[in-house]
Amino acid sequence: MTTSELRRAFRDAYGKDAEHVYFSPGRVNLIGEHTDYNGGYVFPCALSFGTYMLIAANGEKCLKFRSLNMPEVTEIPLNLLTTPLPARHWVNYPLGCIAQFVKRGHAVREGYDILIWGNVPAGAGLSSSAALEVVTAYAFNELLGTGFNRTELARIGQLSEQEFAGVRCGIMDQFASAQGKKDHAIYLNCDTLDFELVPVRLNGIKVVISNTHSPHKLDSGAYNDRVSQCQTALSELRSVRPELKNLAELTVEDFEKIGSAITDAVAYRRARHVVSEVARTKEAVSALRAGDIERFGKLMCESHISLRDDYEVTGLHLDTLAEEAWKIEGVIGSRMTGGGFGGCTVSLVRDEAIETFKQLVGQAYERKTGIRPDFYVAQISDGAREIND
Ligand code: GLA
Fold first, then answer.
1. Does residue 47 form part of some domain?
2. Residue 338, ligand 1, Cβ within 6 A
3. Structural domain for 113, as ranges
4. In the chain, what is the greatest distance between 2 CA atoms, to the nearest angstrom?
5. How many A from CA of 215 to the centre of ligand 1?
6. Does 173 participate in catalysis according to the annotation?
7. Residue 216: per-residue pLDDT
């Protein structure tokens, strides 16, 4: 929908004009998966699709939430902004962010009418929930004049997801949505939150996202299990290295020396993935800076294999898309992106191979799974902002 169509929808819903239109994007992660909550590196970029929030003061003592993607209207009195709604209610994502403002001493004294619309494919692992969180944090930061910086807004979004949606997520998705920059990927150290914007200049190559449309959505139970398994591994490693702060501090060589302190075989494999993925991410960013895109692509494929075999977050749908992509000439690299268990892969594909890629990967995937995948050529875009047209 265009901004003027959204403004019209707001008028239809609330009988007045929206005072502001805010937007925050979804993201795709190029490499560095399941490293963020282990203090490691990630390398995501913001996309052109995301979530819009239209808003106007309503002179009442409540917030009204409507979404063009969902049927119901939800009214929350201003004295109940820190109380979650029942589990899985979509309003928990924005509400959890507003609760963070209240908890930091910034009361919401005025009511607002709010309309949300998003065009991130749902359940695709492209962070529609982070887009919704960050657009809320961005909007309320402006409306309340709280002056939080973009990193703090990302943190507010992450806490909303943890406290109101029950996912023990890292900060990657919200950070990418808040800090994204056109034609750049964000090389983020998730321990210190220091980051660099690295130009993604890919002559004759596109970032292609392939959507499994797999019925398995990001399963917060399986995700939270991975977080716990990493914590188990970390606490066992501390028996031989007490000062170890997080798994991502270990080099591959360190892990070969002390990894046997992890007694649980599953936790061992999870930790091995984290350690190898952090090494791959660092190397991939150096390769990209040096213009060695072939090396970058090879590391993407190795990342997928590690997520498949050690971290076990892929499955038939993601594996089929990635493995079929690897067979095609002109594919530089391909891997699952995001939390896994369904969702999308990300591939670097030469311009002249894109049509063949869509055709051959699409056919093979449909043959194996009975589902037709979707393909999007990603446009790497800016992070959260107000839209003034
Ligand atoms: C989800 C989480 C992120 C990150 C990825 C895996 O997208 O929200 O914090 O852990 O999975 O890299």
1. yes
2. yes
3. 3-199
4. 67
5. 19
6. yes
7. 58
